[in-house]
């Protein structure tokens, strides 16, 4: 199905547009990823999908194309967590690097992927991790996905290293000024077979479509309302968090409501130095870790343990993952 034929289906406005089948969506995304469409056609696709909205079947088809094309991180025996980081800090500090480092301390291999810079000028996880590495903390900036070792630690990968064609779709935002379907797909794609994906959504209406895709694809995943779009719990109060175990849904917690008894003292999210200092203080137990973030990390370790139990794990791995995090 040509891009023109697809546009005739999806570019009829919110009420007149017709959804693509999973197979049609896969074919369209394959053409986008391989550069078989012009910049004009790419822009038309981005705007049309922005107006229409994606169905779970379309998202699944787009992901089929991505997973058939992208470069992969090798699997292994080390429990692995994937953290997509594509929003950065607007006001609150970006704490995705902190979550990654906390999990690495507990014996996990954590793959953080995203863009090296943000079109809107937000502070990114890439910048924070780079500054933390300069402070002597072990963070790997892998040369290629295939070069990532099977060991505990935090690894950063840029989107263009995983799939240059997908970076081109993301970059349409720099011209159009709008996020597009690719910004949802990067939070759902799986660069490591068998890893636990921590996905997030920003607007409540995306909960149901994202959950439907995780169920449809049989994913092991955590899904939460992200903090300014990042896959990390709001340090002020727990968001709703859902788990998917081979696609089977389990609610971990409802969102906390009501006024805060005591708000944590957080740095300005736009300040790189303050964010790095705060991250390192929490990492080294100088400052207590906010309860929502600690609870999220505990649930991730629990999910990894449940996933490992399905694979007849070595007792040592199981015991390590079942340990509680130190407050």
UniProtKB/TrEMBL annotation:
GO molecular function: anthranilate phosphoribosyltransferase activity
Enzyme Commission number(s): 2.4.2.18
Keyword Glycoprotein: no
Gene Ontology process terms (BP): L-tryptophan biosynthetic process
TM stretches of this protein: none
Keywords from the UniProt entry: Glycosyltransferase, Transferase
Domain of life: Bacteria
GO cellular component term of the entry, any: cytosol
Gene3D superfamilies: Nucleoside phosphorylase/phosphoribosyltransferase catalytic domain (3.40.1030.10), Transferase, Pyrimidine Nucleoside Phosphorylase, Chain C (1.20.970.10)
Database matches in NCBIfam families: PRK08136.1 (NF006005)
Protein name as annotated: Anthranilate phosphoribosyltransferase
Organism of origin: Tepidimonas sediminis
Encoding gene per record: trpD_1
């Amino acid at each position: 199905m040509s891009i023109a034929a697809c546009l005739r289906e999806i570019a009829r406005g919110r009420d007149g547009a017709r959804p693509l089948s999973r197979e049609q969506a896969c074919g369209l995304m394959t053409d986008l990823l391989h550069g078989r469409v012009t910049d004009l056609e790419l822009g038309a696709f981005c705007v049309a999908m922005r107006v229409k909205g994606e169905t779970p079947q379309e998202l699944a088809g787009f992901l089929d194309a991505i997973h058939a094309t992208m470069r992969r991180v090798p699997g292994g025996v080390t429990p692995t967590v994937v953290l997509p980081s594509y929003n950065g800090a607007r006001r609150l500090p970006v704490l995705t690097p902190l979550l990654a480092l906390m999990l690495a301390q507990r014996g996990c291999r954590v793959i953080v992927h995203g863009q090296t810079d943000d079109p809107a000028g937000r502070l990114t996880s890439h910048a924070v991790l780079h500054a933390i590495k300069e402070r002597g903390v072990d963070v790997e900036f892998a040369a290629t996905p295939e070069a990532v070792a099977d060991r505990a630690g935090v690894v950063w990968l840029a989107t263009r290293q995983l799939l240059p064609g997908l970076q081109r779709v993301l970059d349409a935002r720099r011209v159009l000024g709008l996020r597009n379907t690719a910004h949802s797909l990067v939070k759902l794609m799986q660069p490591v077979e068998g890893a636990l994906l921590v996905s997030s959504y920003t607007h409540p209406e995306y909960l149901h479509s994202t959950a439907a895709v995780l169920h449809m694809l049989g994913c092991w995943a955590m899904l939460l309302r992200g903090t300014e779009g990042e896959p990390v719990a709001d340090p002020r109060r727990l968001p709703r968090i859902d788990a998917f175990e081979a696609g089977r849904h389990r609610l971990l917690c409802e969102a906390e409501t009501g006024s805060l008894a005591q708000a944590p003292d957080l740095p300005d999210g736009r300040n790189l130095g303050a964010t790095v200092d705060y991250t390192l203080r929490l990492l080294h137990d100088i400052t207590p870790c906010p309860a929502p973030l600690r609870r999220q990390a505990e649930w991730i370790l629990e999910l990894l343990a449940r996933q490992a139990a399905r694979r007849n794990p070595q007792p040592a791995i199981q015991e390590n993952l079942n340990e509680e995090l130190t407050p």
